[in-house]
Amino acid sequence: MQIYSHWHDLKYKHKKLVVGLGNFDGVHVGHQKLILELVNQAKEIKGTPAVFTFHPHPLAVLNPENCPPQLLSQNAKQRLIAKMGVQILLQVPFDLKLAGVSPESFVKSILIEELDVKGIVVGYNYTFGHRGRGTPALLEELSTIYGYQLKVIPPVMVEGQAVSSTLVRNLLIKGEVSQAAKYLGYYPFTEGQVVAGKSRGGSILGFPTANLELDHGILVPANGVYAAKVYLDQDTYLGVANIGVKPTFQDEKRNIEVHLLDFCQDLYGQKIKVSFTSRIRGEKRFASASDLMKQIERDIHKVRAEWSKARE
Prior knowledge:
This protein is of the alpha/beta class. It contains ten helices and 14 strands. The longest helix is centred in the last third of the chain and has 23 residues, at 289-311.
């Protein structure tokens, strides 16, 4: 997948663009249906499937205090979009100048005159242009003028609820990772380079852990202990992950640490991905390190039991 930061860079390079418009935060199952539709539509006309989005989130520019934390890093979002067959990602820096562009001008000047799109795919609640005045109904009206094919994706329902990034955020805030996975189509995850911790896991508790610093622009699940899958290079390990501030040791900085089951190598400096598969318990302060050790043993036993049951 090729990534561009301005539509000028795309002009005349690709023919018959079919473009999906949106923020695609989380690339959840609703987004996945939209992307599948645009890829199929591009195949039908022997065109090029593309996604057009903005970064940062428009609210980060227009109303920073109300901008929600994102579900994925930019790199993770790009990988998931590419995996679905999108060939072009147009990820344009959002600013106040763009915010002032009218919906009609966005379609005429950018989508038609600059990109010459042949197809547009959007979600049912997509809005665009100055003050969000652009809607799927306007895109339908303008399609009769400019001749592009429009496809509007209806709500994608899972267990009676319309899938949305807001719904997923609310579940993660409560730590309901297994429920969130139903709407995402994958387990919520974080990734990064293992950093130096305070070495309590191995030296004091007997359970060595890999520590990850939090990206404060990305939402991670509520504080607590989680069953996890840890991806290191081409290998996958089961793990027990803790998100929080380690109240037993009166730490103040929130971070993630994960103990890999049946693994004893040094991970410092390596990049790992941690997927949270279920919540074991909430964060708790213990009277002593000994009491914490006993609880960790119970957590590990519970994680092993869950995975044994899942394999049956």
